[in-house]
Amino acid sequence: MTTIVQQQVLNKRIAIIGGGPGGLTLALILQKNGIDAVVYEREPHDTNRERGGSLDIHEESGQMALKEAGLYEQFQALARYEGEDFRLFDKSGKLYMDEVAEGDAQGARPEIDRGVLCDMLLKALNPNAIRYGYKLIEAVPLENGQHELRFENGQIDVVDLVVGADGAFSQVRPLLTDAVATYSGITMVELNIPDVANAHPDLAALNARGKMFALADHKAIMGQLNGNGSLKVYLCFNAERDWLDTCGIDLIDVEAAKAQLLGYFEDWDPSLQKYIRYASHNMIGRRIYMLPVGHQWECRSGVTLIGDAAHLMSPFAGEGVNMAMQDAAELALAIVRHGSELDEAIAEYEHNMYRYSSESAMQSGENLAIIFGEDAALRLKEQFDRIYLEFVQQANA
Ligand SMILES: Cc1cc2nc3c(=O)[nH]c(=O)nc-3n(C[C@H](O)[C@H](O)[C@H](O)COP(=O)(O)OP(=O)(O)OC[C@H]3O[C@@H](n4cnc5c(N)ncnc54)[C@H](O)[C@@H]3O)c2cc1C
């Protein structure tokens, strides 16, 4: 049986552009509250599995959203609590932090692979609620407050609410703001080492069960154990935007690329160089973009943004996916509260979202400055110690 609020919203057509973690979570929480929405995804099928590795899902944001979606128990069964292990080195191999997730204790930030997370969301979502092969070209505001959505496949839809969950280069964002994603100054080269425990037990032991950061000379090697036993490695460079085109490294020619990449880390400890030497296939160059920290727009009828579309930030605080999922929950619950008054729901959601997302964006920016600054390993340890102390003080207040 539907409630009065649901009946009011049922008459409204809600479009979510983008089937990443943010868009899927939003559709699912609406569905759980009896409200229909349609996700329009540009790819011909789900590609979340191919888009990066393990994500730590935070208690107060990502996990909160999973509770609202009714998936928390499933998440707990799939999450890797031991993935909270964290090691921090400098280039000489000196160890600054060695955090080990304790026994059976369930920490606040367990890991899950992006593909596994999105599979879980997709399985719970009504299959009719997602349309693949729908790349939004343009959203045109109509005089009656609705939006006409024009897709590359020739389809046109008219909706009452359009939510841009379409990531860094959102096609919905220009309806609200002139802000564009700008290059952060950091470029990553992603490497993969399959079955690291069996193929390279020495590196598996060094990396432990979670994440490893080695920082020095405005560069970083970051290792991340994934749920399928592979190690994902991000080599991070403070570089010009066109460096990937001008550096002369052909990422298709893996062995030659490895030799060239090792050149950038020739005076790093041999144990850390193994993150490059053992890489086997599938090298990907990634430029890191961001929106201005604290960026806001004037509230407009029938349109809003969530996730990277709203507040793209560098990945150095591990907040992006958590913010996308928290936005999804905040917006969905505001819609549930306000019924057919969708504009009131948008206003309430945006007001809250600006506050928490700007804190995370600021944190990501601070971490970026530390990770690529002087004495990076020591400074990052001091930063984590400070955050931990603040957390303890707040908990005891
Ligand atoms: C290398 C790297 C590592 C990261 N590591 C972490 C981490 O450890 N922890 C963390 O929290 N975050 C991390 N992030 C950030 C995280 O990936 C993003 O913040 C998160 O994916 C945002 O989710 P989203 O749903 O807003 O957008 P996305 O995941 O980008 O999804 C957007 C979706 O919209 C679709 N789309 C785009 N344009 C259109 C269009 N015109 N029409 C229809 N569909 C469209 C896309 O195909 C995609 O499916 C990392 C990012 C990078 C680059």
TrEMBL record:
Keyword Cell wall biogenesis/degradation among record annotations: no
Keyword annotations from UniProtKB, A to Z: Cytoplasm, FAD, Flavoprotein, Monooxygenase, NADP, Nucleotide-binding, Oxidoreductase
Residues that coordinate or bind NADPH: 49
Record function comment: An FAD-requiring monooxygenase active on some tetracycline antibiotic derivatives, which leads to their inactivation. Hydroxylates carbon 11a of tetracycline and some analogs.
Swiss-Prot/TrEMBL domain comment: Consists of an N-terminal FAD-binding domain with a Rossman fold and a C-terminal substrate-binding domain.
Localisation: Cytoplasm
Domain of life, source organism: Bacteria
UniProt name for this protein: Flavin-dependent monooxygenase
Cofactor(s) the protein needs: FAD
UniProt similarity note: Belongs to the aromatic-ring hydroxylase family. TetX subfamily.
Matches recorded under InterPro entries: FAD-bd (IPR002938), FAD/NAD-bd_sf (IPR036188), TetX_monooxygenase (IPR043683)
Description of how the protein assembles with itself and partners: Monomer.
Domain FAD-binding: from-to ranges: 14-352
Reaction(s) catalysed (UniProt annotation): a tetracycline + NADPH + O2 + H(+) = an 11a-hydroxytetracycline + NADP(+) + H2O
Enzyme class: oxidoreductase
Residues where FAD binds: 56, 114, 308
Recorded GO MF terms: monooxygenase activity
Pfam family of the protein (one): FAD_binding_3
Enzyme Commission no: 1.14.13.-
